[in-house]
Design goal:
Number of strands: 8
Shape: globular
CATH superfamily of the largest domain: Cyclophilin-like
Number of helices: 6
Radius of gyration: 17 Å
CATH topology of the largest domain: Cyclophilin
Strand order of the largest sheet: 1-2-7-5-6-4-3-8
């Protein structure tokens, strides 16, 4: 048994996760799933950063089924592996997964924007959209970019009507505060709570 498995026994019992299931999982997202009381089968995206640390994102399949499925599809095809954080605005957002930034392309179209009640707060995850300038100080959002995802570093409630939140960071959001532009994303994989 891995050393952390015994220490997690109480937490896992509360979350109805067996000790044998703990053996098959990395310790971080098991703890996150238990802490958030995520039901079995809930998808969690594990984003591995340069240096090996991870950020865990619970995917909101019920609130944004098409967008969550799109992200899972890209992750399962290893589309995000080896991409970079192509846009970093400190204190606001990190944006990653742009295949064009690493000389690759994927023609998978983005889903239509889904309306849900999720709000754009710290740790919210959504697909990037093209910004089109309008007038002297205005802009509007155009199509959703199919390969790029964003994570908010602070609350931005004014974005609520413009983006589909399809995930929430449940562990490691503080690691994204220090990400630098063009820093690698080692991998993105999706696991399910046992």
């Amino acid at each position: 048994m891995r050393p952390y498995a015994a220490a997690l026994a109480t937490v896992m019992t509360l979350a109805s996760v067996s000790a044998s299931a703990v053996e098959a999982l990395e310790p971080i997202y098991v703890l996150s799933a238990a802490a958030y009381r995520l039901p079995p089968g809930t998808p969690i995206a594990v984003v591995e950063l340069a240096g090996g640390s991870t950020v865990e994102i619970v995917l909101l399949e019920d609130e944004a089924p098409l967008t969550a499925a799109h992200f899972v599809n890209l992750a399962e095809r290893q589309t995000y592996n080896g991409t970079v954080w192509n846009r970093v605005v400190p204190g606001f957002v990190v944006q990653g997964g742009a295949l064009s930034a690493v000389g690759r392309f994927d023609e998978t179209p983005a889903p239509e924007r889904e309306i849900n009640d999720e709000v754009c707060t710290r740790g919210a995850v959504f697909l990037a959209r093209t910004v089109i300038p309008e007038g002297a100080d205005g802009y509007r959002y155009a199509e959703t970019l199919g390969d790029q995802f964003c994570v908010l570093l602070n609350d931005a409630l004014y974005l609520n009507d413009d983006f589909t939140v399809f995930g929430r960071v449940i562990s490691g959001v503080e690691l994204l505060d220090d990400v630098e532009e063009m820093e690698p994303i080692t991998s993105v994989r999706v696991v399910r709570v046992p």
